[in-house]
Specification:
Layout: E1 4-11, H1 15-28, E2 34-41, H2 48-58, E3 62-67, H3 73-83, E4 88-91, H4 102-111, E5 116-121, H5 128-143, E6 156-159, H6 160-167, H7 176-182, E7 188-192, H8 207-221, H9 224-254, H10 261-293, E8 301-305
Parallel strand pairs: 1-2, 1-4, 2-3, 5-7
Antiparallel strand pairs: 3-8, 4-6, 5-6
Helix pairs in contact: 1-2, 5-8, 9-10
Length: 310
């Protein structure tokens, strides 16, 4: 009996790509294994759900997990793994930027005994965003015990053992690349060329979203920002103490107070800004804790199609 591979496809406003992606999967996937196609609709505002349901009427291997609202790609990937029935699972985006034919290479490496096979993108524009992304990976790997591959993608294949391990980790604020690095399984990694998006718009296109994603991932896997806050506080306290000594000795020697209302005000403003930054960092970590202790589900499913309920 052939092995079953679950192809997990997180979707958000991808109605124009669903049919084309399905056709590519049917055309290019190796027929040596069986497949199920798990489309996870992450609260799309267009007709993504309808497109998947139409395909599911014709092909029972096409399965739908429809969220009640947008919970984010991390939740969509977790839901796909929760519902996956395969001996292995492949995660691929619905935007047709990732080469479908590479799934065959991932499956071949999995069949050779690799429990986890990752990919990284080889073609990157040499702009400011590219340089910042490279620096982000360097910073993350230097300050965290968990190591992630530069330019790593969510496009990967994992064995059932890895799927079960990841599904057992139910933290509410998730960073999938960090999780696959944390679990510690040996992995292979292969390069892929990323194509330009032909339809729709990426939800990660804005710099604000990328910076927020980067800071969150660092906070999840390192407490260095908290330690850095302590260091900054210690340095500013030491500088303030030296300045106090200077004021005292200058008063004793010259017999007059030190003039300089503007400089004093500037120093006070500087110290207060440091305090606010430290409080902001602490507040962000507290917000992560608050999100965990609420124990809310990672996602809420509105409906499913072609999925047997257990």
């Amino acid at each position: 009996m052939s092995k079953l591979v679950s192809v997990i496809i997180p979707c958000y406003n991808e109605e124009e790509n669903i049919s084309n992606l399905y056709n590519e999967l049917i055309e290019k996937l190796n027929k040596s294994v069986s497949y199920e196609f798990l489309f996870v609709d992450d609260g799309s505002k267009d007709k993504t759900t309808n497109e998947v349901q139409t395909l599911g009427e014709e092909d029972k291997r096409v399965k739908l997990i429809d969220f009640s609202r947008n919970f984010g790609k991390e939740a969509a990937m977790l839901a796909g793994l929760d519902y996956a029935a395969g001996d292995a699972a492949v995660i691929i985006d619905a935007d047709l930027q990732m080469p479908v034919a590479t799934i065959n290479d991932l499956i071949k490496l999995w069949q050779e005994g690799n429990k986890l096979v990752l990919t990284y993108k080889t073609r990157r524009k040499k702009g400011l965003k590219s340089k910042l992304a490279t620096k982000y990976y360097d910073v993350f790997n230097n300050i965290s015990d968990t190591q992630i591959q530069n330019d790593a993608l969510d496009f990967q294949i994992m064995d059932r053992e890895v799927i079960n391990t990841i599904c057992s980790m139910r933290e509410r604020t998730r960073f999938f690349k960090g999780i696959t690095g944390y679990i510690g399984y040996d992995f292979k990694i292969i390069p892929v060329d990323i194509s330009e998006r032909t339809a729709g718009e990426s939800s990660f296109s804005s710099s604000k979203t990328l910076f927020s994603y980067a800071f969150k991932s660092i906070a999840l896997y390192s407490d260095l920002p908290l330690k850095f806050s302590i260091i900054i506080g210690g340095i500013t306290a030491f500088i303030s103490f030296l300045y106090l000594i200077f004021i005292v000795f200058n008063t004793l020697i010259n017999g007059i107070g030190v003039p300089g209302y503007a400089s004093t005000l500037a120093i006070m403003m500087f110290l207060f800004s440091i305090v606010l930054i430290i409080l902001g960092v602490m507040g962000y970590y507290i917000s992560l804790i608050y999100n965990e202790v609420k124990q809310r589900p990672n996602y809420i499913v509105n409906e499913t199609k072609n999925i047997e309920e257990e």
